[in-house]
Amino acid sequence: MATVHHSACPLNCWDSCGFLVTVEDGKVTKVEGNPEHPITQGKICGRGRMLENRANSEDRLLYPLKKVEGRFQQISWEQALDEIAEKLAYYKGNFGTTSVLHSHDYANSGLLSNLDSRFFNLYGGVTELTGSICWGSGIEAQNWDFGDAYSHAPEDLKNSKHVVIWGRNVARTNMHLFQNLQAVKKNGTKIYVIDPIYNATAKLANEYISIKPGFDGLLAAGIMKELLRMGLQDDEFLTNQSVGFEDLKALLDSVTLDYISEVTEVPMEVITHLAGVYADRPVSTIMGLGMQRYENGGNTIRLLDALVAVSGNIGIAGGGANYANKQVGQSFDYQNMMMPERKKSLRTFTMMRQAEEMLSAVDPEIKMGIVTCGNPLTQVPDTNRVREAFESLETLVVIDQFMTDTAELADYVLPAATVFEVEDVYYSSMYHHYVNHGPKLVEPPGEAKPDAWIWGELANRLGFGDDFDFSREEFLGMGLASLTAKGITLDKIRVEKFAELPVDRIPWADRKFKTPSGKYEFTASAVADGRVKLSLPTETKWTNPELAEKYPYTLLTIHPLRSNHSQHFHLFQPEPYVKVEIAESVAAEKGLKDQDYVRVWNDRGEVKGTVSIFKMAHPGTVNIDEGISARFGGSVNQLTPSRESDNGLGSTLYDCLVNIEKVEKE
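Below the sequence we write its predicted structure tokens.
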């Protein structure tokens, strides 16, 4: 008999949807949206629906595996855990705990996915990763400007007179925001899209502004210059609620509008027009993550923040510099769960440069790696270098649900449970502020186990099992401890299916910022040189003309439509392939047409794929969706650089020049 249960999407995505899941004969048979959810209201995307296929796939990892003479053999959990614990004890005793690297990403938004950090802290502290491939430089930029990265609540969009979608295709990445935009547009709100690609969101807009990739900060500077020239700035905010404006003004005075128009490839009259838009408050600015994936990424977001501040759109209904909403995640008690006080040693590598750091590490060298919630061989930039680094390890352990590119390199692969096979609570620090409950609905297939069970068994073998001797319910209680006084308990979430977290719906409305000065900081006081800079991407004709002569096209690697990064591609029917999307200008220069087979290359590597010509994109633009594994012709990260952004905490994936040519299909 079929039964229907509430659940939640675990994918680290903007929307964090509520589900209704049908279970029949102990198996998930359908995943649909929950119409009762206050934000997602019964509508979910294909990535969420595909979680049914993911749970039931014949390719699921079902048993622990050990590589013996280059081939995987099934072994018992007891053998796998005994041998992994023995190696952890050996490396700790002989080289110190930081000889172990914990490589992770954020594939799962479940609260208890953080128990891996509890394990490694209790172990004594390992080499950890800092920053983020996805959004790190933008987060750090807003930390400098505001003291944190907060966004307005979704329902506040109805108060906006204008909405500027800057570098985001919300139709692909945030479907419920897209529906919200459709609704406010009907009520008279004007929508503007600034993007190198005329995408589905741009089709909704009242106006579309095409821009050269990576030059968004310069455009923001030009708009500010025009605001000041026309006297449209918010003097009250600048005088009373900010510091460092004179530094910004001097920076803007150092560059001409002609130059800004030339490098951004945006006409001057459009820049002037956008200044008028920003002065006609309230204006909501909704920022994408791609435009901060350049070496100038931090300064890009800081210049956009500054534009929102100068125009008087901070802390007002319908306004905001909306990039992330970290106050959602800050609602939970991570200290209680993760026990950082038990850490005795620590070494950090940035997520972007983990391969280089692994290969050059001394005192101690990296001997062992454990990969959780990620697939670095597909997702980390400069794939060839990443492969070299992970192959150099004496021992590699991967915990996953499928045999990923990274798992294929491992010495031990441990099969993990999926979302419907464990209880957890799920949230996202990107869009709305609801936490969703996901109950355990079915048993894991084969011998797959929840992550928490794996960590507890290893902890028992390493002598700190008492600190993992808690039920899943008790661990969830730890993470929710700080919310209990506000009436949000696990029992409440279980019954009501979701709960609204206590956040400021209009951040900074009280003009109390979390910066050292307590004000908005155009010049950040938390760092040695906190002035905003008019920096450019590294790989461009303006900064490296010789490189641009050799590789004349800008490569973007945007998020795929149907997969959350690399998680779903192997489930696609028909099988996926590398699609090389190119601007009409590239097609004309290279004599290419739709369905041509091409080679895309630079000094880091090459990728081959099939051409699709954009209907409208900025001249010189190429895109290959990220996440496609080697078995289907990827990864595009064979082309991308592993440099860090200007503030050290973000990737430079989009700061990438390539060339392209037609080749014969193999």
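The CA atoms of residues 88 and 167 lie 44 Å apart.
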